[in-house]
Specification:
alpha/beta, about 10% strand, globular, about 350 residues
Length: about 350
């Protein structure tokens, strides 16, 4: 299938505003879809699904078939890099990820520095399958977790409310913590390049826990590692399109955009619109930022929320998305309502 067709999502990242903003949803392949739940039950464990190329490709394509989104994002997880670095990674039902914690310098010394990318070949094969199946106008997004966010899970061995274990380690043992970050930076570059090679048209770097860091630590542990990844990817693929998502960064977003060189930044629903328009969207495309709870609410509240996003950001370069991932309990009819509202252009 020819890949030369215009892709609205890529056009926005390239600097071209679209009269109807392209749209997709974070976690769009997920538990709110009955067809996903059916495949998930067939796959077994969560990582079994991530590492089964045919099934991962199938769930990646499901929301595209159902909703006609402008971008598909490969079904995987940010913790596949620690897995490829030899760490134990498992997902407990109802409890989220569990890893063997790297919570002191002696344990950090056991960390592999180079990932076994053979373990991630199923992800690349899934990308190839999806790319061959997608309409040429639909973009395919590859992704990784930002080093800070991935490190928070590696240090604590699980998610915690404010990622205090990683923050404490970064204060107490900054050299050891930097070793984790450095390993993640170097291997994330190679992982993202391999995703581009397998057919991804753009990349997203998810820094879900960026918002827990004070400004100086944010610069050191969120911004600088992301900058290095962007620079490393573009050293090999100079026109690579990259979206950053430092969730909760707020007033630190302009500095993040300037320092990292991303083509677009994803914003959460707490972002102040005038500030984003003046200080961020004037420089790069923005992606977001509907509150996932407004999508669950539906009705007039959802229509107002969609209109607010369009009013605030659609005069500039916008990719319509949620401010974080779609929740499992979201009614499918509300997703359809959102899409109609955006594409009718009533904002």
């Amino acid at each position: 299938m020819p890949q030369s067709a215009k892709k609205p999502f890529i056009d926005v990242l390239s600097g071209q505003r679209q009269s109807t903003p392209p749209m997709w949803m974070m976690r769009q392949a997920g538990r709110y879809l009955p067809e996903y739940r059916e495949v998930r039950a067939k796959a077994g464990g969560f990582l079994d699904l991530c590492f089964n190329p045919e099934l991962a490709a199938e769930v990646t394509l499901q929301p595209i078939r159902r909703f006609g989104f402008d971008a598909a994002i490969i079904f995987s997880d940010i913790l596949v890099i620690p897995y490829a670095l030899g760490r134990s990674v498992r997902f407990e039902v109802g409890e989220g990820p569990r890893l063997d914690p790297l919570d002191d310098p002696a344990k950090v010394a056991t960390l592999m520095r180079r990932a076994d990318f053979g373990k991630l070949e199923p992800v690349f094969e899934a990308l190839r399958i999806v790319r061959s199946a997608l309409d040429p106008k639909v973009a395919l997004i590859g992704f990784c977790g930002a080093p800070w966010t991935v490190a928070t899970y590696m240090v604590a061995g699980q998610g915690t409310p404010d990622q205090a274990p990683a923050r404490m380690m970064a204060y107490r043992h900054p050299e050891a913590f930097a070793e984790i970050i450095d390993a993640l930076v170097e291997n994330s570059i190679q992982y993202l390049l391999a995703q581009l090679d397998a057919g991804a048209n753009a990349l997203q770097i998810f820094d879900t826990w960026a918002g827990v860091l004070p400004p100086a630590e944010f610069a050191r542990w969120s911004v600088e590692p992301t900058r290095r990844i962007v620079e490393g990817v573009r050293a090999k693929v100079s026109d690579a399109k990259i979206v950053g998502f430092p969730r909760g960064a707020g007033a630190l977003l302009p500095g993040y955009v300037e320092a990292t060189g991303v083509n677009a930044v994803s914003i959460d629903w707490t972002a102040e619109p005038a500030f984003i328009r003046e200080r961020v969207q004037s420089k790069v495309a923005v992606q977001g930022n509907l509150d996932p709870l407004a999508l669950i609410a539906g009705g007039a509240a959802l229509e107002r929320a969609v209109d607010d996003v369009l009013t605030n950001f659609a005069q500039g370069r916008l990719v319509f998305n949620l401010g974080h991932g779609i929740q499992p309990e979201t009614p499918i009819t509300h997703v359809e309502q959102m899409i109609k509202r955006v594409r009718d252009g009533r904002g």
